[in-house]
Amino acid sequence: ADADGTISGYAWTKISGPATGTIATPNAVSTALTSLVQGVYQYQLTVTDNNGATGKDTVQVTVNAAPSANAGTDKLISLPTNTTTLTGTGTDSDGTISSYLWAKISGPATGTIATPNAATTALTSLVQGVYQYQLTVTDNNGATGKDTVKVTVNAAPSANAGTDKLISLPTNTTTLTGTGTDSDGTISSYLWAKISGPATGTIATPNAATTALTSLVQGVYQYQLTVTDNNGATGKDTVKVTVNAAPTANAGTDKLISLPTNTTTLTGTGTDSDGTISSYAWVKISGPTTGTIATPNAATTALTSLVQGVYQYQLTVMDNRGTTGNDIIQVTVNAAPIANAGTDKLIILPTNSTTLSGTGTDADGTVNSYAWIKISGPSSGTIATPNAATTALNSLIQGVYKYQLTVTDNKGATGKDTVQVTVSTNAAPVANAGIDKIITLPTKTTTINGTGTDADGTISSFAWVKISGPSSGSIASPNAASTVLNNLVQGVYQYQLTVTDNKGATGKDTVQVIVNAVPVANAGIDKLISLPTNSTSLTGTGSDADGTISSYAWLKISGPSSGTIASPNAATTSLNNLAQGVYKYQLTVTDNRGATAKDTMQVTVNAAPVANAGSDKIITLPTNTTSLTGSGTDADGTISSYAWLKISGPSSGTIASPNSASTALNNLVQGTYQYQLTVTDNRGATGKDTVQVIVNASGAAFVINSVSGKNIIMHIINTNLGVIGADAYGMISSF
């Protein structure tokens, strides 16, 4: 301004400050300054008035350097940790930091800044997700600087070590199958570690999700699976592996019994080093078919109905974890040996010595020892070698001696027999009751033929008596040398013949009569099969009230020439190559004493009947009824029933009499129907045939050709004889 004139010129000059800082228009009242850098500038304005006088003034321009904010390094935390600390800093090259301000600029709604106006602040209530926090710093000149920090809250992965394992020795390996899931990432690694249990138990591949465990011993192991996600967070889970020591079964020591004893007791025990025994189970695994286990689920059980042979019984014990142990016991049922002390002896004084010749037989072993003892008679009569089969008797005097021979077999069973030695001035007669007899019911009579001899006289009488056996079995002529036995029943009889000589001395002998019950044969129920099936099986059985079945024999006794018996000597056999006809097969069973029984069964091979549903039908609406005429034939019988069934076509079309050979069809509509006729013969075999019924739309129609028995239909469309042709099974080739 000029109080007495006007301003004629302006001039701007920089009088101090950094070298940069250009005055854009130095001779203008207003000018831009460019290329300023941080620092303090002094600019002077000189004004000149219209008389050449000047005036000056200065202005200071301060170029402030903005402060620098540092929000710190990005953060990664893993739940359940949900807090962290933000540590910010600020620097100002030409001043000081006067304030700090934290603000959340992105991320989940939660995540509280505890002290937003402090350089360092806690973050709380964080949830899974990614947050962005911005730090703004302000300097003493009011300039600001900003920086952001990312806080990632990672959801920890979930580890699943699998279900607990239970294995039983001797198995000592198993497999651990682990998995890991991560809701906000991926699983990057797996790690298995044993955290408790026996020292053994090797993890084959500890860094794999699935790994084998080897060298396990009895005990309880804990294995921990750690899964790590792509953000380094971990999850853990444990699995228990129980290695169960199998229980030990003890079926007891092997048993040896000798008939007639036919029962014994099995006494089993079970132990379990790491648990308890929860159950016992006995089962026979070999041996004769008899031999009943009285209480198979008890540790101790009786065995009954044993017969001669060797049995194997297995005891299975189960522990409280379901593991089992087995042991086997052998039960030998020994047939007692048979002793034969020889024929009775008669010596006449002055001869006072004789020889006893004994023998022993054993059906299932050998005779190990012999022992002679005197059981009655005069005090004299010395046995020279009592432990030999044959021995001399010395120093005999007049009287009747009884000597007993005991034979012992290789299993300790014994058999006994006695011999009588008569020392007399009179030779006792010798009785012979004849050879033992076996008869088979229904025969119930036989004849026993006895004889008697006397070295120094004659036989004056015979006397028969029954000494053992069933109550029936009468002696027709008890005082004759030969007599008939009547009314015999199944069982074993002993008859004794006593002969008396002319001096009153007697001799005795016995004969055994076995009356064998006939076995029972059962050839099974009659069979009916229908061709084309041409094979079946025969299942026969046999039973014997007083013995066992020793053999089976099948025989075809009537029927067609075909029909092969695959296994004619087996109880059960297949029949092959059967043809139509009626066969008779006979089963013969033979018992252990040679008695036989027969039974027959019939196999009917039925030829299937043939159904004929009649020729295909074509009708044209408005006609909506027709009839089906079926028939059936059966080469080896009669047709017993008919059954019609619609198998395709429109839903309408009622079968008036579905169980008659001929039936009406009603309520037909346009379309193609298939009806099936099933005929059943008098033996239940069936045959089927189908018939097609075509119902044409209304309009004149006539047959113009027949191809393979199927009708081709022409429909008259209008009076100008425009026609079309249709063929349900082919195509129209010409008109």
Can you tell me about this structure?
It is a single chain. The protein has 735 residues and is mainly β. The protein is built from no helices and 71 strands. It has a four-stranded mixed beta sheet, with no helix packed on it. A four-stranded mixed beta sheet has the order 16-23-22-19, with no helix packed on it. Strands 25-32-31-28 form a four-stranded mixed beta sheet, with no helix packed on it. The protein is elongated, with a radius of gyration of 59 Å.
Concise account of the structure shown:
With 735 residues, this protein is mostly beta strands. The chain is 0% helix and 58% strand. The strands form 24 sheets. It has a four-stranded mixed sheet, with no helix packed on it. It has a four-stranded mixed sheet with strand order 16-23-22-19, with no helix packed on it.
Task: From the structure above, extract its key features.
single chain; mainly beta; 735 residues
